[in-house]
Write a structure and sequence with these properties.
With about 240 residues, this protein is mainly alpha-helical. The protein is about 70% helix and about 5% strand. The chain has 2 domains: about 70 residues, Orthogonal Bundle (Arc Repressor Mutant, subunit A), CATH 1.10.10; about 140 residues, Four Helix Bundle (Hemerythrin (Met), subunit A), CATH 1.20.120. Helix 1 runs parallel beside helix 4, helix 4 crosses helix 8 and helix 9 runs antiparallel to helix 10. The longest helix has 24 residues. The chain starts with a helix and ends in a 9-residue tail after the last helix. This is GntR family transcriptional regulator.
Length: about 240
């Protein structure tokens, strides 16, 4: 049982230290507290501390050097696709810049996958996509159900495109972002009807095997749906950098 207990403790330490690095409490170039200090703060052994430091190094946040301690590395080397790092970035990003970047990355990848899907989609996937669109239309009065089925619609397109790497990247970053109220928020009044119309245009383009239209409508939907939500998350005002 001890290794699993140590693993859980290590995860807790890593989460706390990641939070402090991302928030700036531990600045770039600064040394982390020493092993004895971390042991005392978290009530853990040196073995757990060392395992935690290794995990932080794997995430690109720190570098441990004999005789110099463990320094925080520049942000350029951080693994932003790591779920712990990404979650902390979203939580501490007051200007929502990381979410703006996430939306741009998602739009670029999903546009490509929508276009590819329109080129290669087969009869069975066409039928499934058409059914999902019809079902999505029945959910516009149930925001929670609609948002869940919205995700299914997008994932059906990505899967049908055959771009497994693109699907994996979007699924990873989008799944983590959806857990944050800073990304989702409550849909503005009437937004689900607008969203449904956007999905219907995407679906129609794919079912008509029109890759250019599919890409155009997908990008417009992803970018504009974020623009509708973004100001609402901050009392109607877009945050300044």
């Amino acid at each position: 049982m001890e290794p699993r207990r140590g693993g859980r403790l290590g995860d807790t330490v890593v989460a706390h230290v990641v939070d402090r690095i991302v928030s700036g409490s531990y600045a770039v170039g600064e040394s982390l507290p020493t092993e004895p200090q971390l042991c005392a703060e978290f009530g853990i052994s040196r073995t757990v501390v060392r395992e935690s430091i290794k995990l932080l190094e794997e995430k690109g946040l720190v570098k441990a050097t004999s005789g110099r301690g463990t320094q925080v590395l520049p942000r350029a080397g951080w693994n932003l696709l790591d779920p712990v790092v990404l979650e902390a970035q979203i939580r501490h990003d007051r200007g929502l810049h990381i979410l703006d970047d996430l939306v741009e990355v998602r739009a670029a990848l999903e546009c490509d996958m929508a276009a590819r899907c329109a080129r290669v989609i087969g009869p069975a996937d066409k039928e499934a996509l058409a059914r999902q669109l019809d079902f999505l239309a029945t959910c516009v009065d149930d925001p929670e159900r609609y948002l869940a089925e919205d995700v299914v619609f997008h994932e059906m397109i990505m899967a049908a495109s055959g771009n497994e790497l693109g699907y994996a990247i979007v699924h990873s970053i989008h799944a983590k972002a959806r857990l944050s109220g800073r990304y989702n928020g409550m849909p503005p009044a009437g937004d689900l009807a607008v969203s449904l119309a956007e999905h219907q245009r995407i679906g129609a383009a794919i079912l008509a095997n029109d890759p250019d239209a599919a890409a155009t409508h997908m990008r417009r939907h992803i970018v504009e749906s974020w623009e509708r939500r973004r100001p609402a998350l901050h009392g109607g005002q877009t945050p300044t950098p």
